[in-house]
Amino acid sequence: VTIVPRGMALGVTMMLPERDLYLKTRKRLLAEICVSLGGRLAEELVFGEITTGAESDLNRVSDIAKAMVKQYGMSGLGERVYVGEGQTDFFGRNFGGAEYSEDTARKIDEEILKIIAEQKKRVQELLSERRVQLDALANALLEHEMVEGEELKTILGLGPQWIDIETKDLD
Predict the structure, then answer these.
(1) Cα distance between residue 63 and residue 3, in whole Å
(2) Is 30 buried (19+), middle (13-18) or exposed (0-12) by CB count in 10 A?
């Protein structure tokens, strides 16, 4: 985690995989949404206000949730792919019009918003419960500008092993 500007970003959180990932579980995708929402929600918790700083994180959140619903069959809409107007499939075939009704489009939007809202609530609860660790991390970043590996685990109270977000809960 760093607060040193990188390109257009004012700070960056990187998650390095312990192994190559060719497939991602639903649980891992939800955890990635949570991580992407973390900075924005911490900003809101600490300062009572939000800024434009989380734009790329929010794009990531939207992309993951949309893919879960429209491409991966990981929502209440079931095991179906929903290809919309102007989209292409895996083979690059272009679909001229949406393959679903306006009612289904509304349901897709509702499912995407539901996934994001559920993870937002989860992150808000975690940040509130772990406010001491959040403040400790913020102070360490202000002092050192970057926190890595073992130091990050110590500040967050994670113990000797990395948490594998694919198989364990964030809390």
Answers:
(1) 24
(2) buried
Contact 127, 134 (CB under 8 A): yes
Q: Summarize pLDDT for 99-153 with one digit per residue, the tens.
A: 789 999 999 999 999 999 999 999 999 999 999 999 999 999 999 888 888 888 8
Assess contact for 64 and 75: CB atoms under 8 A.
no
Determine the Cα–Cα distance for residues 16 and 163; give it in Å rounded to an integer: 12
- Whole-model pTM: value is 0.80
Structure tokens at 68: 């879960």
Question: What is the CA 50 to chain-centroid distance, rounded?
Answer: 17
DSSP 8-state secondary structure symbol assigned to residue 14:
-
Q: What is the token pair recorded at 149? A: 């590996």
Residue 37 to residue 50: CA distance in whole angstroms? 12
In whole angstroms, give the CA distance from residue 65 to residue 3: 26
Task: Find, among 164, 165, 147, the residue nearest to 156 by Cα.
Answer: 147
Phi, psi of 2 (to 5 degrees): -140, 150
Which of 65, 156, 67 lies closest to 119, judged by CA? 65
Cβ contact 152:1 at 8 Å: yes
